[in-house]
């Protein structure tokens, strides 16, 4: 997941217990230690501060110092910190990043700790724990949350278009004509003269409200952009997951899906890449009424429902040619830096973050994300419902087993570079989908 909520200004430092700011303090003779912990999501900052407070209360010898950065600054600062030897004891990891860090020897394996403390990995949503084990069989994280993708829409614009919420729950799509899904997108699109996308006289060069918003070309991941369509069309990222030895970006199913999807831009139903990259983010554009609906990850649910002057609701992703919906199942975990001075304290904190004491008793009740522990997910659904948000369109994927594990692969940075250039070119109509042939060859060349 991207979890890339923008945060302006300097990093925010939060202290729990009696700790002080500054670098991590190694354990003293009596076992006391300050654990330096980094995260990037400002929306989740309060709940993990609460977990840190609870952790300190249960373990008064340990103090957690939390540092929060915005998404881009987070990874740049962390990379620099690894080089300079100033990395935190523990930090929130990402599935696309940890394999490279592990290969570089920057992360501490957790296997001995897990075995010693007999951590029950079966309490987490199926498949999540497996994502944090590298090719050599070493574990580097315990699941802390999970996410799926759904459609978030403006209820007023839906009402104006005469579309009923129950219709949104049963939409289907195909790469030939887009199915009922594209019909809804077209009808929700309105030009500056009030003409809808499916009406005669619609001017695609002067769109006031796009039927569906965009977050970009999706590079090689496309989590919230196109993954739900490609996978419901029977496509998979690689020959196996995790650790594919070849990717399938040149597969005809992928090509036809991307051709259909970018066709929404050509028809005027979805904003161009230039508009998307103009500086106004998808959330702000949706809040301003520029987009009638968007496809988004569950981690941003609360952000959308907190927008002023916009009432939202959620629908599941459309049913594809396979006869099923699809969504990536992604999740985060916390990594311990190999060079930490406080391995025991760091492990205690990581174990607590992955425990019912944090996930069920604190995180679930905050109604921000879905905790990784199965029983905590139920509590989170209830907390969202109490806040007036029906999140079943997100969890339906877990219930109906239409999730697909996020791709875990070596060379992800290089894959991203190649696919960003190629997908941006396709989305801006500088290239057609056949450019994926060379891109796929370049990606697969990374694996020998």
UniProtKB/TrEMBL annotation:
Compartment(s) of residence: Cell envelope
Keywords associated with the record: Signal, Transport
Major place of residence: other
Keyword Signal among UniProt keywords: yes
KW Signal (keyword) present: yes
Pfam families per the UniProt record, alphabetical: SBP_bac_8
UniProt xrefs under InterPro entries: Bact_solute-bd_prot1, SBP
GO annotations of cellular component type: cell envelope
Cleavable signal peptide: 1-23
Full protein name: Carbohydrate ABC transporter substrate-binding protein (CUT1 family)
Protein species of origin: Nonomuraea fuscirosea
